């Protein structure tokens, strides 16, 4: 018999996780504040716990997928959790996760945190992966069970790291796609369709992650780690001037200019900080200082 698992929280993500455990032969106990959400899972073989205490008693491994960490406190406070390994895959800030670890440890249990890097339909699929942080020995102990959800990528002992990675990835994902949508809107003002623009955008995004001379993800990483940002003919001053033009183009297209102006202002603040002759990676010096 495969290891039993308890799933707390049956929103779209938690429900899919419970279904995935069941399909892979793991005895699965579920609990949700709205018990009726468990009905389809019970029909598939899951056991519905009547209380959080009953849910925790059913399995050493407890996977939590709720709206936020406050939901964990509200749901599990007062329930016996001694000896349990709680794997919280909810979203939160790094410090929030660190406080949660202290709370769980105060109840003689242990916490692993995770950032799920796919939407609910991607759970259990070949490209799915989850970033985990916390005590690595706990992940190793339950890796076979957790692996059915996706690749178990360990990022470090600090429980806050998983969601720091998660938030960084989300910011990169959202900002890239939003910039793409903004670019589409700019071109639409001149009658260019999104599909006409898509091949050019694809070429740019693909090149960024490549190993060739246009592989700027690699180039930026190397420059940031080395603390050296050569500008040459493509200096921050030249990019700031070009960013002015991007704002003008957006305004003339009649579209929202907040995003382009934020980028332009960052560039000019970098120039004003003395990096006008440096390269793009020098913006990190301004970003690190905060507002």
TrEMBL record:
A Pfam family it matches? RedAm-like_C
State the UniProt keywords alphabetically: Oxidoreductase
- InterPro entries, per the entry: 6PGD_dom2, 6PGDH_NADP-bd, HIBADH-related, HIBADH-related_NP60_sf, NAD(P)-bd_dom_sf, RedAm-like_C
Question: Where does the 6-phosphogluconate dehydrogenase NADP-binding domain start and stop, copy by copy?
Answer: 5-154
Domain of life (superkingdom): Bacteria
Ranges of residues in domain NADPH-dependent reductive aminase-like C-terminal: 158-289
Family of the protein in this entry? Belongs to the HIBADH-related family.
Q: What is this protein called?
A: 3-hydroxyisobutyrate dehydrogenase-like beta-hydroxyacid dehydrogenase
* UniProt source species: Actinomadura algeriensis
